[in-house]
Amino acid sequence: QVQLVESGGGLVAPGGSLRLSCTGSGFTFSNYFMHWYRQAPGKERELVASISSGGNSRKYADSVKGRFTISRENAKNTVYLQMNSLKPEDTAAYFCKADAGGSYQYWGQGTQVTVSS
After folding, report:
1. pLDDT at residue 10, as a whole number
2. Angstrom distance (rounded) from CA 54 to CA 73
3. Which pLDDT tens digit goes with each residue over 63-73?
4. What count of Cα atoms within 13 Å lies in the side-chain half-sphere of residue 55?
5. What is the DSSP letter of 2?
6. Alpha carbon distances (Å) from 5 to 9, 10, 66
7. For 57-94, what is the HEC assignment?
8. Average pLDDT, stretch 42-70?
9. How much is the pLDDT for 99?
10. What is the pLDDT, as a whole number, of residue 107?
């Protein structure tokens, strides 16, 4: 049974930091690209960051470049999103996605991040 479980969300003041984690099971984690998406109320889900299966290639949305860092530990089947200098507009539900193409794509249930004073 495939599972992706996110954690680490919460309420943080503007300028603060959070680290999200996403742990996978039921599939060969190290074979999958991993992505973080977010979705704010009333908006479409957007891609925030991506990392290749081996971790040597990363991409970021322009809105988070220089503030967010995606990383992974394949030995722990876990991908991370370190979020620094958080802004109110970063408020959203954050989802991880495992992607090996075709039908081999899995989503987590999401974790809420709220940036507010």
Report:
1. 97
2. 9
3. 999 999 999 99
4. 14
5. -
6. 12, 15, 26
7. CEEECCCCCCCEEEEEEHHHCEEEEEECCCCHHHCEEE
8. 97
9. 96
10. 97
Radius of gyration of the chain (CA): 13
Q: How many helices (H) and strands (E) does the chain have?
A: 0, 11
Under DSSP, the state recorded for 27 is: S
Q: What is the pLDDT of residue 81?
A: 98
Provide the terminal-to-terminal Cα distance of the chain, rounded to the nearest Å: 40
- How many residues can be counted in the chain? 117
Rounded Cα gap, residues 96 and 59, in angstroms: 14
Mean pLDDT over all residues of the chain? 97
Q: How far apart are CA 108 and CA 36, in angstroms?
A: 10
**Model confidence over 16-31: pLDDT tens digits?**
999 999 999 999 999 9
* Close Cβ partners of 58 (under 8 Å, ≥ 6 residues apart): 49, 50, 51, 52, 69, 70
Q: Evaluate whether 112 touches 104 at the Cβ level (below 8 Å).
A: no
Residue 23 neighbours by CB distance under 10 Å:
17
